[in-house]
Design goal:
Length: 141
Amino acid sequence: MTKENPEIKQLGVQNRRVHLANERTFLAWIRTAIGIMAFGFVVEKFSLFLKYLAHYLTQTPPAGAPAVQHAPWSLGYSSFLGMTLIGLGALMGVLAFVRYKRTEKQIDEGTYHPSLILDILLTISIASIGFFLLIYLWHTL
């Protein structure tokens, strides 16, 4: 039986820890992508709620009751934003997998270089969501 070199054994343990950290990062990105997609689904379904509400409110009111007007632009923003968020979440999931596999290969080769593409995409998406929600809420005032 051959004895293992303690330095090689220590390197294997460190390498496993790095791979496990890479996997945890991947799973965090997947949770973020699922959260963005779920939020997009909720926003899109809110559009459906607004359409039903607008239909109910624009029916002929009883005699003497004031007519309630709804803004025509309020029905399209949430649907568009919801579908955009769902697509963005799906794209982030795919990019997270690509980043995970690339990082895994770089760890094995010992040539790891951090990538900013997913970080930039998340930052832009959060800023865009905030911007569009502000516009949407501003128009509903």
